[in-house]
Amino acid sequence: MWCAVHRLTTRVSAFSLNSAATSSRRYNAQSVALRLSSSTSEASPLTVIPRVKAADATEASEGPVLVKGWVRTLRKQKEVAFVQINDGSNLGGIQCVVPLSEIDEDTKKELDKVSTGCAVVIEGPLVKSQGGKQAVEVTANKLKVVGECPGDTYPLAKKRHTLEYLRTIAHLRPRTNTIAAVARVRSHLAGAIHAFFQEVGFVYVQTPLITASDCEGAGELFRVTTLEMDKISDLPLKKTEDGKGTTDEIDHSQDFFGKPAYLTVSGQLGGETYASALGDIYTFGPTFRAENSQTTRHLAEFHMVEPEMAFADLDSAMGNAEQMLKYVVKHVLDKCQEDLEFFSKFYDKELIKKLEALVEQPFARVSYRDAIAYLQEEIAKDPSKWQFPDVEFGTDLSTEHERWLAETKFGSCVFVYNYPKAIKAFYMRDNDEDGGETVNAMDLLVPGVGELVGGSQREERLDVLLDKMGELKLDPEDYWWYLDLRRFGSVPHAGYGLGFERLVTYVCGIENIREAIAYPRYPGHAEF
Ligand code: 4AD
Predict the structure, then answer these.
(1) How confident is the model at residue 214 (pLDDT cuts 50, 70, 90)?
(2) Does residue 429 line the site of ligand 1, with CB under 6 A?
(3) Which one of 220, 296, 451, 459 would you pick to mutate in the ligand 1 pocket, going by the greatest count of ligand atoms within 8 A of its CB?
(4) DSSP string spanning 373-413?
(5) HSE-up of 512 (CA within 13 Å, CB side)?
(6) Is 36 near ligand 1, meaning CB less than 6 Å away?
(7) pLDDT tens digits, residue range 11-36?
(8) Quick check: CB of 415 below 6 Å from ligand 1?
(9) 413-424 pLDDT, tens per residue?
(10) Which residue's alpha carbon is at the smallest distance from atom 11 of ligand 1?
């Protein structure tokens, strides 16, 4: 009995149209289920009308169903009205046909209130559709407007808007086809990432968002403080050495954590500690970078997927990243066909072919030194074509270099490995074989995006790590716990970080990362 009722509560909305508009009854499905489950005696004759989502409406129904969503368009003819509803479950929504001569007076009045954007509940059977666009439609015997939407002030009343404009109404933009499709694909990608790592036995670890260390050492940190920053005169200042006066440095011992604290730029260091106990772990959470980048690839708040593997080298990290990407892209190709076709039509004609190629083609691998040689050879042909024509060992590759390598030179995703030590983070393992000039690091470059993944084998040798920290003037005191990993059962280990919004941008074939996240944060923008 419990199983049957449980299934019922999750799959149907157990109240009829008459009560559906009452917000306090929104969660009544459960109480109805309870009454059903104790139906030993004279249970009330409840009519349970199942709610159907547009994505699941594929066949005619035996009885009436409820459809709940927001009106996209209303078209009234003499005999019938066509109400196109979108409930977010798919791109196309569902068509509801209202037979005007057969509906009651209440529904007629309600129909007069219908406008683009209003929220409605519709009751009627699913029937085979007369038109060719959809398999089934609803014959709407009853209709109730749950939330009206005045057309003169509704910002989405008109059909077409630019993506730039939609960013200014980010709270309403998920009601557009593009942003809703991005949200669905994003959700499938996130689910597939978890599924992949769980299937291959990785433990999901949530590392802290507030931290005292700068993992990447790039100084792009947002500070976290409870000190009263509005009143400079009230800020506690450090005392001078003689204790008699004050310096102009803030005294963080009086701050919330008793020391400077920041929003994390990466969960890696915490991830390494758990990998050093659990073997294979991954984190998947928000990260923050106060870099002043106004590009189509950078956000100040983004999500990173960071696996970390003990007893592993750089090769294992590259292999895992390739396997994971193929898995999640294949999942989206299987599950999000309608949305991907939409993106192909409006944003990138080659999208589906591109995604299929990613799944099928092995990723290329090239050392940084060779990549530089290829770039130099190409740039020499016509330096004027390049924004950054000066490329040599030690150059931090720019997006145009990365894209040329992936799009033109290799025509596929490509791992570039063994980067110069000088341009990479302190925790990366020195390559012993080339005089310590390079580290065991890799970036995965993807056509159309550039860098999607950055990773490395970590420096597991305490003495080497201490030397590297010394060179970069990092205080070992601040990393005592991280260094302990190298003191107690140290093990070769490796991992990487994948920028989740860059993946969403790529898979949706859209131009700008600001469409890949619900509320993009970038310099000057923290609205909503
Ligand atoms: O290369 P990054 O900086 O690597 C790390 O943070 C390592 N600690 C990860 C690890 O080894 N566990 O960043 C990893 C990825 C980049 O390849 C890029 O895709 C993304 O994170 N990324 C950004 N995405 C959006 N906006 C930004 N500002 C980003 N910065 C990095």
Answers:
(1) confident
(2) no
(3) 451
(4) HHHHHHHHH-GGG-SS----TT----HHHHHIIIIIISSS-
(5) 15
(6) no
(7) 334 334 554 433 333 333 333 333 33
(8) no
(9) 999 999 999 999
(10) 496
